Amino acid sequence: MADSEYLSKEFLLPFSFSLDLLGKCHIYYMKTDVQFPKLRLCLNLTIFLLHSLSLYYVLYLLFEGLMDYSDASMTVNIDFIMSQTFIEACLIVQHKNAIKDIIYEINSMWRTTGLSEEQVLLKDKLMGRFILRIKLIYWFCRLTAYLNLFVPLVKSFIRKAILQDEKAELTFPFLGRYPFDATSNVAIYLAVFMFQVYNTMLVVNTYIGHQLLLFSIVSYLTTEFVLLKEDMLILVKENDSDPLRKMEKIKGFIYRHQRLISLVNKTNDIFNAMVFSQLMFGTVTVCVFGFAARILKDTIVAALNALSTIGLLMILINLCDHAERMNGATSEISDLTYNNIIWYKGDVTYQKTILFIILRAQRSCSLTSLKYAPVTLNTFTMVLKTAWSFFSLMSTAYGD
């Protein structure tokens, strides 16, 4: 039985995109009814390593000066993406049980009843926006990947079958080195072509899947913080003459606040290394894809590299924006509590309780890079500046 069956359909929708992509790669976070999951994962890993060796050898030839960069640019680009994806997968997969626990705990806190009309509208607005972003990344990145993979096949078919160009060579999405002639006949060509397609989609699905998984978790946490802020507003507006009942409501608020902060810390403990990898590799991959889009003479391939650059930037800006929104939602609770509650007119216990909320909400509650640097929209700006510096350096070195 799949563990996801215990989650409501409404709650599971944002996670369905990431879990579907990772499931295609035999990486399961919420399924327990899969036969031989480790064997399937090992087979995929073996095939992936064989594919990686054939592409990394091209990178070696490029460094030795035996190949021109314009010919090997697509292979260089996918080499960086493969390296990043493999590292991030190794960092995250070891925390499968912890991630599942986080999803279950968020589900246990997710409220579908007991909300005011304003809270329901706000929740629907926030989640609708988050789901739209996830869908956009999901479809844009996958469509871009398929275009990069199948355009060479279409071009080869047009030249060979329609234009009858005998000098035209059969082309692959990426240059690879194999212990046989991969273009000796159509059957071998198609087999190698599909081998590249399968492995590339493994990389793309794993890469996008883990990013969307993080975005989904952060989206839910952000929404819960916003709803908690609305709870405080409602509490302020209430004219409850019973101090004990009001104190009980405040204690309930503190309990939910503490649970959310704990979930943010757990999420950051798991994903902080992946965030660092995303920012570090993202700087390089945006640079190399953008550089390839500029120097390649083939207009179609250059356009595909431009689309890939846009896809990478979409993921980076969403990472930084999600982290910024979550951090902003937590700090707003502190400001709201301080400015709207007349805490200094209560007794000592009441004052200490409100002060505890204010002090705890003032602490940074965000995703970090290696538990050091909080991720904000300024981080995205720094990534763009660094990528542009590398881009200018490569343009100069290549002889722009």
Automatic annotation (TrEMBL):
Q: How does it sit in the membrane?
A: Multi-pass membrane protein
Transmembrane segments annotated in the record for this chain: 41-63, 136-158, 178-198, 270-293, 299-319
Per the UniProt entry, what is one GO biological process? signal transduction
- Record keywords, A-Z: Cell membrane, Membrane, Olfaction, Receptor, Sensory transduction, Transducer, Transmembrane, Transmembrane helix
Q: Name one GO cellular component term.
A: plasma membrane
What is the annotated localization of this protein?
Cell membrane
- Which InterPro entries does the annotation name? 7tm6_olfct_rcpt
- Tell me one GO molecular function of this protein: odorant binding
Put simply, this protein is called Olfactory receptor 18
